[in-house]
Amino acid sequence: MTSIETALEPGAQVQLQFPKRGEERHFCRLVGVMSGVSILATTPKHQGTPVPVRMGWPVVVRFFANQNIFAFTSEVLNVCTHPFPYLHLSYPQDYESGAVRRAARVRCGVDTRIARPPTADGEPAIEPLKGRLVDISVEGVRLELPSDELSSGEHIELSAELPVGRYRELLRLTGAVRSKLDHVISTDMRASYGIELVTVERSDYLALYGFVNAQLAANGNL
After folding, report:
1. CA-CA distance, 174 to 195, in Å (whole number)?
2. Run of H or E including 31
C-alpha cells in the first residue's frame, strides 16, 4: 500500500460517499494516516454543520493525486467531536486507481457565467457574460455565446453548476480561449469557442472528473 500512503498527504482534499445516505458525496480534508490501522479525515459539513455519520457505516473514499484518481471502501471506526469534528476510517485492504482520461469529452448543456479580469491598463472588468457549455472534459470545454465577444488568447473565469449524483456542484474554472469554432451547436447561440482549462482547484477537478465519467458510463463508454 506504499503508493496510496504516498498519495494520501495530510491536508489533501478527499471525497466521502456514505451508501447509507444514498449517492450524496462530501468533500473533506485528510488529517493523517496510521499505516495498517486507520485514516483520519475531517467530518464533512453541510451548511456549516457536520454531516450526521454513525460508527460502523461503510464509506467510499475517493481522491485525486499525481494525475490519478484513487478509490477504496472503508468503514467508520469512530466519530470524534473534539477538538474538532473528525472521523476514524478503517485502513483499506485494497484500492483502485486509474489515470485520468484527460481527452474524454462529453456533451452537455450547462448554462455558465463568464467573467473577464481587468485589462492590462487597469480598466475595470467588463460585465459578466452569459453562455452555455456544450461539451466538457477535464482539460477544456466548448463554450457558446449569443454573440462574438471573446478573442483568441483571452483569459476568462467560468462559473457553472454541474449535476454530480443527487446534487449540483458549483465549479469555478479559469480558462484561455484557444480557438473560435465555425459550427454552433445551440440554436440560440451565435459564437462558439474552444476553451483550455488552465487553473482548476482540486475540489472542482474531482467534481468535473465525476461528471465526465458518469456521463461516459451512462453512455456505455466506460
Report:
1. 9
2. strand 25-34
Kindly state whether residues 178 and 199 are assigned to the same domain. Answer: yes
Residues 80 and 115 in one domain: no
Question: CA nearest 64: which of 31, 100, 38, 88?
Answer: 100
CA distance 22 to 222: 22
pLDDT tens profile 135-161: 999 889 999 999 999 999 999 999 999
Give the number of C-alpha atoms closer than 13 A to the C-alpha of residue 8, restricted to the C-beta side: 27
**pTM score:** 0.59
CA distance 124 to 139: 29
For 170, the grid coordinates are 458549483
Q: What are phi and psi of 152, to 5 degrees?
A: -60, 135
Question: How is 163-201 classified by DSSP, letter by letter?
Answer: EETTEEEEEEEEEEEEEEES---STT--EEEEEEEEE--
Q: Which amino acid is at 125?
A: A
Which residue, among 129, 156, 128, has the nearest Cα to 141 in the 3D structure?
A: 156
Tens-digit pLDDT profile for residues 53-73: 999 999 999 887 766 778 889
Full residue range of the structural domain in which residue 22 is found: 2-99
- Cell 483502485, located at residue: 96
CATH classification at residue 53: 2.30.110.10
Choose the final residue of a domain: 45, 80, 99: 99
Instruction: Let me know how long the chain is.
Output: 222
